[in-house]
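We emphasize that the prediction below concerns an isolated chain of 252 residues; any contacts that depend on oligomerization or on bound cofactors are therefore not represented. The input was used exactly as deposited, without trimming of termini.
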Amino acid sequence: MRADARRNREQILRAAREVFADQGPDAPLDEIARRAGVGIATLYRRFPHRAELHRGVAIEVLTALVEAAHRAAAEEGDPCLALRRFMHAALDLKIGSVLPALLGRFTVDEVLDSVPGDAVDPIDAMLLRAQERGLVRSDVVFGDITLMIIRLTRPLPGGGRFAPDDGLAHRQLDVYIDGLRPTGSPRPTTPLGGPAVDAEAFKRIRERVIDDAHEAHEARDAHEARDAHDARDADEAHDARDAASDLDPDPA
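Result of the prediction step, given as a token string:
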């Protein structure tokens, strides 16, 4: 792929991620083209069908998430700083608003097969190293990290009134990260309630989400097939009425 074509594709995917997060998966494609700084014809050349754009965005987000986890773990000597760096990078991907909106719009397996690796293990390894060094409280588990990122990237009530202020989510994330400090820090910690979603539990939940997405995709296909069948029946009935009308004798 030529450099300019690759650049256009990346710009379209970034813009689509933002627009889908703000307006949902059925957002106008011309708005995506406008934000990407390309013509609508360029968008259609790269993604002839909306479903291809949905898949492209999902692959781009998940790939960036995996890369962010590995990069933070490799480049930060302090595991707590690595965890903080990853969480802020993941926040920018808006995974909590983009991916749930796209589930059911594609076959999940084809997306996961296109993503190089999995972010679960490197994230869990960063957390465990931080706990071993006494930098993060020992009762924090994998789900406390990732599910908070998802919560912070979900749309807030009021839509566009909050959307422009991405700094608000990063501010709240910093407050949360400071709360990961162990007992003995200047401020006391509060015992954690609720279920502890560790890495293995998260993987099991993810499998259930994938199964649900499969069912949603199949139901959508079946619904579209029924609509197409009904449309054909209506066209055939209309044609039959026209043919019968043509056979009627001229009353004149």
